[in-house]
């Protein structure tokens, strides 16, 4: 009976496992082919990274970054870069979703790392008002120092910057917290739990959809844009009125004299 049960279970389960393994290997092979063409010049043929004799690093090693890091970097167009720079900027996506999945599978095969999250992990649909408030508290504590109180981004030392979070998909925001791209710190699930990440996303969605009761936000960049507007528009208008009043009074005096 033991042999019959064991043999039966093996016959039922092993074909499915073999097919899954074969499909995974095919995806990894496809991803490796794409990697060698578009990524190996900076990251090395095996994802080991490339450092010149002068110590300049073209691309960091990728073993252990995980599939989520690839999905974020390639899915936002930051990778591949035309040339190494201070910071990779968001641009038009080069690869298709299927190619991004294959690249992520190959990089994930180089070493264990964060996987691409399921939609249930980052989807804030159904979040309560309490969740939004709590997400705002987390955001103001951990994120506003770089991304600004209105998530509009801000300048950082060394020519770098924290990008605006407006218009960024929920999935990519979650992956950024999970992987810590570029100068951003990693907020692992042990530091900020998946529920807390989802609450932060719910808060970001709420402030993006809020009406601007105070009028033009001027980019929500704080005293820089507001001070510049005050000087150019506010004081400029006052100077213009002063010149107009002065010239008008001169014309009046000439008329009285005549």
TrEMBL record:
**What Pfam families has UniProt attached to this entry?**
Cytochrom_C, Cytochrome_CBB3
Any idea where this protein resides?
A: Cell membrane
Q: Which GO terms describe its molecular function?
A: electron transfer activity; heme binding; metal ion binding
Please list every transmembrane segment annotated in the UniProt record, as residue ranges: 228-247
Q: Which residues form the signal peptide?
A: 1-18
Per UniProt, what is the membrane topology?
Multi-pass membrane protein
- Domain named Cytochrome c: residues: 26-111, 130-208
EC number(s) given by UniProt: 7.1.1.8
Q: Does the keyword Cell wall biogenesis/degradation apply?
A: no
**Which reaction(s) are listed as its catalytic activity?**
a quinol + 2 Fe(III)-[cytochrome c](out) = a quinone + 2 Fe(II)-[cytochrome c](out) + 2 H(+)(out)
Tell me the enzyme class: translocase
Q: Does the keyword Cell membrane apply?
A: yes
Keyword annotations from UniProtKB, A to Z: Cell membrane, Electron transport, Heme, Iron, Membrane, Metal-binding, Repeat, Respiratory chain, Signal, Translocase, Transmembrane, Transmembrane helix, Transport
Alphabetized InterPro entries for the sequence? bc1_cytC-su, Cyt_c-like_dom, Cytochrome_c_Oxidase_Subunit
Chief location category: membrane
Q: How does it assemble?
A: The cytochrome bc1 complex is composed of a cytochrome b (QcrB), the Rieske iron-sulfur protein (QcrA) and a diheme cytochrome c (QcrC) subunit.
What is this protein's record name? Cytochrome bc1 complex cytochrome c subunit
């Amino acid at each position: 009976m033991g042999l019959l049960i064991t043999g039966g279970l093996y016959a039922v389960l092993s074909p499915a496992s073999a097919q899954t393994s074969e499909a995974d290997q095919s995806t990894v092979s496809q991803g490796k082919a794409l990697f060698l063409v578009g990524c190996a010049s900076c990251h090395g043929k095996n994802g080991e990274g490339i450092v010149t004799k002068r110590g300049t690093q073209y691309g960091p090693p990728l073993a252990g970054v995980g599939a989520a890091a690839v999905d974020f970097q390639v899915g936002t167009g930051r990778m591949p870069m035309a040339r190494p720079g201070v910071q990779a900027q968001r641009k038009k996506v080069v690869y298709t979703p299927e190619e991004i999945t294959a690249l992520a599978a190959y990089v994930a095969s180089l070493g264990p790392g964060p996987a691409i999250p399921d939609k249930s992990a980052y989807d804030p649909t159904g979040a309560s008002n309490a969740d939004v408030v709590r997400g705002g508290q987390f955001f103001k504590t951990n994120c506003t120092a770089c991304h600004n109180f209105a998530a509009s981004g801000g300048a950082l030392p060394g020519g770098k910057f924290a990008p605006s979070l407006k218009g960024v998909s929920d999935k990519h925001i979650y992956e950024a917290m999970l992987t810590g791209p570029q100068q951003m710190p990693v907020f692992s699930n042990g530091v900020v739990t998946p529920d807390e990440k989802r609450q932060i996303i719910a808060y970001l969605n709420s402030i993006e959809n809020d009406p601007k009761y105070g009028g033009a936000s001027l980019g929500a960049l704080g005293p820089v844009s507001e001070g510049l507007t005050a000087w150019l528009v506010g004081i400029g208008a006052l100077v213009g009125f002063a010149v107009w009043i002065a010239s008008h009074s001169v014309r009046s005096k000439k008329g009285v004299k005549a």
